[in-house]
Amino acid sequence: MSLLFRKGTPFTYFVTQSKDQYMRIAFLADPLDRQYGGIHVYTKELIKALSILDKKNEYIVIRSESKNEFEGIEEIVIPYSSFPGYRFWRIFFQIPRLLAKKDVDIVVEPAHFGPFNLPKNIKRVTVIHDMTVFLFPEYHVWSSQYLQRMFLPRILKKADQIITNSKNTTEDLMKFFPYVKNKTTSILLGKDLSFKPQINNDILLSHKIKQPYILFVGTLEPRKNVSTLIKAFDKFKDQTGLNHLLILIGKEGWKSDSIFDSIDQSPYKKEIIWLGYVPKEELPIFYSMAEVFVYPSIYEGFGLPILEAMACGTPVITSQESSIPEVGGSSVSYINPNSIEQLTSQIIVLCSDSQKRKKYIQMGIKQAANFSWEKTAKETINLFETMI
Question: For the segment 175-233, what is each residue's pLDDT rounded down to a tens digit?
Fold first, then answer.
């Protein structure tokens, strides 16, 4: 029997094995308040699942805005400021001091920029979502390239464990940093239970959508290859004469000017609708009521929109590149993301062949059932337990 005393608690715990000791785990959760993309979804859904599943360990969420959205989890707010240099002071000094004072056992950085300046007794977990800054630097602004190339090697060396969101991301990570092989674990992402077939014509009408449509969901940036989709849509309209719209959902990202140029140059630009950010509660409806979901991305660390579309019973056309086959399995239609002709052909098939549509709908729902945030959380808890 061993004696365990934890700072900040009035109790002394007697345990027979280390696995019975509880852990205090902190998430550096700025993605909850600073963005709306995949890292935001990952951070929010994982913490939510952990709050439901794990009643043994303590969790702390450090963020920039107060929202108290996780039951039973302590939230610490350290606001952002526009004061010059404050952002770096916050990351490199203010947050590390707080973590040391809180006597945490593990710190998780979901956005792979840190954690920094921690005492040696605190374990570090860094999450890597993709390696685009090294594989496709042209898709990033200069400042992002510089900061990640300067800091990431040091971050990875100091990390006790690294989580990737797919086997493909792990393989890409090994190409640049082979020394992290023995401390890297791939944990696939999940899907929210709200992503299921839903019909609501009033939602579509509120956005003035009265025609069948082809759907894309994702940040508008070059890596997502939306310009190729627009050119394929033009050919689809030329060859079929069908009255389908192209609906683009997602916030404007970096280097997105070329995408809006493609829209302006399209002879069907009045039938291309960019809705921007759509509330989460509306997304399943847009997926479910789409004729087909098209995601011709050049590279994905995982590809959450593919999983969400399949779960909503929408036929999916997507790229055969990177991690996407780990998500889509044999349940989606794959294309070469550089082939406008191939993409056009598959859109025509799935918009005109009801039997093929039905086949992909059934296979997609079955494939999506293999993914859940509960499963992601359980595998993450297992990793934490191996660290202490």
Answer: 999 999 999 999 999 999 999 999 999 999 999 999 999 999 999 999 999 999 999 99
In whole angstroms, give the CA distance from residue 27 to residue 222. 30
Q: How many domains are there within the chain?
A: 2
Q: Is residue 195 part of a domain?
A: no
202's tokens: 């009033």
Displacement of CA 369 from its chain's centroid (Å): 18
Do 219 and 360 have their domain in common?
A: yes
111-139 pLDDT, tens digit per residue, is 988 899 999 999 999 999 999 989 988 87
Q: Which domain holds residue 208?
A: 201-368
Sequence-distant (6+) residues with CB within 8 A of 371 are: 188, 189, 190, 191, 307, 327
How, if at all, do strands 12-15 and 2-5 pair?
Answer: antiparallel
Is 194 a member of any domain? Answer: no
Under a CB-based contact definition with an 8 Å cutoff, are residues 170 and 186 in contact? yes
Confidence at residue 139, expressed as pLDDT on a 0 to 100 scale: 78
Helix segments in the chain, DSSP class H: 31-34, 38-53, 86-89, 95-101, 132-135, 142-158, 167-176, 201-206, 226-240, 257-265, 283-288, 304-311, 324-328, 340-352, 354-368, 373-387
Q: Are residues 43 and 30 in the same domain?
A: yes
Tokens for 53, please give them. Answer: 């599943």
CATH of the domain at 324: 3.40.50.2000
The residue to which tokens 């290859």 are assigned: 225
pLDDT in tens, 54-80: 999 999 999 999 888 898 999 999 998
